[in-house]
Amino acid sequence: MTDISKAKTAVASRRKFLTGAGVATVAGLAAPSIARAEPKVIKMQAAWGGGIFLENAQSYVNRVNAMAAKDLKIDLLPVNSVVKTSQMQDAVHRGVLDAAHYVPAYWYSKSKSASLFGTGPCFGWSSQEVLGWVHYGGGQELFDELMGSLGLNVVSFFNSAMPAQPLGWFKEEIKDASQMKGLKYRTVGLAADVLLEMGMSVVQLPGGEIQPAMKSGLIDAAEFNNPTSDRDFGMQDVSKHYHLASFHQSQEFFEVTFNKKMFEGLPDELKAILKHASEAENSNFYWNNTKRYADDLVKLRDDQGVNVYRTPDSVMTEQLKAWDIVVDRISKEDAFFAKVIESQKAYAKNVMNYLNLNQPDYKLAYKHHFS
Predict the structure, then answer these.
(1) Superfamily assignment of 40-161+251-290 in CATH?
(2) Dihedral angle at the C-alpha atoms of 299, 61, 262, 257, nearest 10 degrees?
């Protein structure tokens, strides 16, 4: 074969190769793509119909959805969308709901020990330290043990350490604990036992029913949680006497609970997202809510004529005495309750010893600048 013939053959081969490659490329482009699976949707019902707590629940959901959008999405439903608040834990247990956002005090009728996870006695600590006990003092393990003993098919995480709840709204200024005897008062959880011990008549009502109940005279006094929610409920329209600071519920936080079978069926990375988004939301809650509470307290006082008081120490001292009686009584009846109390006391004694020695008197500095 001559050099010219060789060259013509090479060009023809090259053209054939390119033509085939082009066909292959076109065929490849024309092939149908493999469809990505839709993200798993978790139906979560909140115990809140609106207001700042529903915003807080949505904030947790937004964090999860931002991190897991391709694989998992939480669909947040407001209060009573599927079941009533009192039925939410059972609904998650049975798989009617995948998840719920509420507080343990809403289901503590199953076990008084539940109230120790957020609405228990104060051992000189705030809700931040109680969450420290949950994460690093054995609290989560005790909670999981409680779920097992109750036969509940749920996995729970805790977040959003709340400031101490106000004593609440009264028809007159409370200057002494004796004024509280006989009053019909709204609260929830173990706080009901404590205030009964102080001589009050306690009614447990959902948040949305508090203001109408006080307006109609069904109750004489009430608390819910914070100045923002109280203002949204319109408590300033039925009372002008608002008392801040109390030991009846001085440390509380949210519980985010999931159906255990559903949760354990998720990949490890999605389990981690659900857990760590809860921890991240703890910080966001504090930064966001304390500012909102402070702003709304000023509006209640300056714009809506509410008299704002700090609950007298004499009242809070009587609360502590009542807590002692209630805790001692239940501990004698319930070995697990006593076990949780001892665990909490050990943690609080250790951690608060350090904090009480180390923390300066912030109130002294506040007075120095804003007296």
Answers:
(1) Bacterial extracellular solute-binding protein, family 7 (3.40.190.170)
(2) -20
Q: By three-state DSSP, how is residue 103 classified?
A: coil
- Give the residues across from 42 on adjacent strands: 74
Strand partners, 270: none
Q: Is 87 exposed, middle or buried (0-12, 13-18, 19+ CB in 10 A)?
A: middle
| Long-range contact set of residues 362-365: C-beta below 8 Å, sequence gap at least 24 | none
pTM confidence score: 0.87
Compute the C-alpha angle 226/231/233, nearest 5°. Answer: 100
Q: What pLDDT, in 10s, does the model give residues 259-282?
A: 999 999 999 999 999 999 999 999
3-state secondary structure 171-219: CCCCCCHHHHCCCEEECCCCHHHHHHHCCCEEECCCHHHHHHHHHHCCC
pLDDT digits (tens, 9 = 90+) for 168-188: 999 999 999 999 999 999 998
Strands (E), 260-364: 307-310
User: What is each CA distance from 279 to 61, 145, 188, 284, in whole angstroms?
Assistant: 13, 21, 25, 9
Q: Where are the domains of the chain?
A: 40-161+251-290
pLDDT, tens digit, for every residue of 284-301?
Answer: 999 999 999 999 999 999
Residue type, 176: D
